[in-house]
Amino acid sequence: MNPSWTLEVEGFGKIKQASIAVKPLMLFVGDNNSGKSYLASLFWGVTEWMRRLDFSEDDIKTDIFLRNFLEQEKGKPEITITNEVFEHLLPFINKRLDSEKDTLIQRILNNQEINIKRLTIKNIILNESLVLYKDDHPNSVAILEKYKLKAKGDYFLLHKKAGHSHRGVSSPSILACAINALVIKFLFSLYFPASRTGFMLTYKSLIADSISSWGIDKEPKSRFSRPTIDFLQRLTKLEPKKDIYHNIAESLESEILNGQIISTAIVANDFSYQPQGTTQPLPLYLSSSLVTELAPLIIFLKYSSEYGAIILEEPEAHLHPAVQRILIRHLIKLVNRGIPVLITTHSDTIFQQVNNLISLYQHPKREKLQTEFGYHDDELIAPNEVSAYQFTNTPDGTDVEALKQVDGNGFAVPTFNQTILDLSKETIALQRD
Predict the structure, then answer these.
(1) Distance (Å, rounded) from C-alpha 322 to C-alpha 291?
(2) Mean residue pLDDT across the chain
(3) Which of 162-166, 296-300, 427-431 shows the lowest per-residue confidence on average (mean pLDDT)?
(4) What is the pTM of this model?
(5) Dihedral pair phi/psi, residue 161, rounded to 5°
(6) In contact, 364 and 318? CB cutoff 8 Å
(7) Contact status, residue 324 vs residue 356, Cβ threshold 8 Å
(8) Which of 75, 125, 255, 269 lies 20 to 30 angstroms, CA to CA, from 4?
(9) 274: β partners
(10) How far apart are CA 350 and CA 352, in angstroms?
């Protein structure tokens, strides 16, 4: 079940306007200080806001279709949610979002001075109907018994996710459960901020300032943004046990780190790096920036499944181009297991690697080339699973442009192409003269 929707933004920081279509893999690229991190943080916050959203019968009483729908379906053991339901529900979602948008932005960025002119959700499309089950439905009872859960009179949507037995969202409200279903793959999005080395070396002291804040609806003591506070707090909640994505984490350790990240829990989690072939772990402050930059991603893949999406700022930081290529292959493995990934990046290597994996996915000689270059099926990605956006600074703000794919060969990225062209011309001129 892959519902699609679009987030539209106007007058947000430097961003004049943007229209971001949700895809399993999204890439933000462009000028420094152009608003990429702002928009990535907003995406984190909007999905947090949506999963807490609910409507009473009084809230939607002006819509005859929704009112009749609730009256007819209430109490049924099985309820089907169609595109028509969302077509009628969307105006109420956007009315609530409009009334709360400034407060939401200020909470996300932890700054009371920031506002937004327009924030809208559009184009909700289900590629198949959603089916909600009452927890006394036979389909639900088996799952509840398997996981030793008690029925609470809820409706819930069961979502089969690669690697998971089942994952779902539940609520006593039909409409809340339906709205949750829109963002089910983005539930508990995990935001990896830039400068991860600094956070990994100092996170225990930083936790002291932020531990009283959890989620989008509580006041923080820290001055960090909400996604960053959420990231720090989750580090303290991890348990040193293998999770369902541990094989991807271990592959990253083997292919990039040549060692492993070790977690020990005393008061709060301690992390260290043990190089391959040694018996003595190193504290992270004695490890290379390669290790400390990748450690957070590896740690969460090893020890936690309490997230539904990954938002990763500048994954190329401190990584050699060859290592960037390996990392992207592993991130696409996560996408193919049902974990959406949003990346902000300045790396032409990352974009070209994504382009190659798109191109190979549909190449007429795929099998031959896949064997030649050593790619696995789960490292390739379909063109319609990826979107990319370029952020360009202008005198009156940032333009955000959806990049187009070129003949099934991935994205042409003007911000990279022009720079590479200028550098090439300069190099040729210097060598010629």
Answers:
(1) 15
(2) 85
(3) 162-166
(4) 0.89
(5) -125, 135
(6) no
(7) no
(8) 75
(9) 260
(10) 6
